[in-house]
Amino acid sequence: MATSAVARETVFALRRQIAKIEGTLPERLQAPAGAPVDAPRNPTADVTPKNITPKNLTIVRRGLAVAPPDAFLRTGAEGLDTALGGGLPKAALSEIHGAATRDAGAVAGFALSLVSLILKQGPRLPVLWIGTAEIFREAGFPYAIGLHRLFGIEPEQLLFSEAPRLLDALWTAEEAARMTALAAVILEIRGSPQRLDLTATRRLHARAQSAGRPVFLLRQAGEPEPTAAPVRLVLSAAPSAPRQTIAGPLAGSIGRPAFTVSIGKSRTALPGQFTLEWNPDERSFEERRAGERRQEPAANPVPVVSASRRGKDPAPASGAVLAFAAVGSPAAGDQPSPGERAAHRRPRRAG
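-> structure tokens emitted (351 positions)
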């Protein structure tokens, strides 16, 4: 009996150690009689089993605890929200991956959609977007006019921080993640740098939990690696459905932005794939069912390029060409300095 009790305590100690490494709150595990329980590390995350209440439950592995409904950011797509156990965690680090740099527009559009959902529910606080000079050079900046039209975000609400090195970007993200004056923090990284490891992501996740604000880690052209983020989504652009009218789908038109979302990692869900459409009017996602595929556009009877002049149908001669000065063009001495990074320069495609 003594040997069996020692074995149970040894196994439970190993389980607690593994759960501590994975961040799954070992104090929530059911300890055998007489087994010691580690002291809680902070009052909001680690609590003993005898004082668990619905207000202090957090996101852990499937079957260990249940989080309150207000702990999640619901996207509006019922299938994805159900698969994630209620939505994306609000006070946590969430990863959004793009397989290639060409998916940067889809990843950025999805992140801005999540920011729009956050601003729709709470106070309209500013959002800080942090990135290295490399990622902004490769992917560009969001288009300022499209921020308000598609996401309801004012251009002055989106702040940018361009760091020369990844180490500086991580430091800025850690300091910003603890601030409650920001609605969300976005950190955009390209590739799979060594400094973005478990230690760095643990710090970001802990700061997000402490401040009660989400931190979105955008990974462009990066490999899936172990991180402390509870959720990892893999994003790519999906074909848009035709625009809907009163008479039905408008053939040859382009409808709402669409995303293919795959659950790459989650502590509460199984892997799955969904096609979501962003509704810019309602500021919410809508899930596209399997039968609602994009209709192929009809063949265009009009030639894209005019026939040669030596053909049977020559192109009409162009009229007079007049040169006009651009309205409101700045003078030669009023050009912006190379260090300025306006939000409307070098826009990227979103969706």
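The first helix runs from residue 2 to 22.
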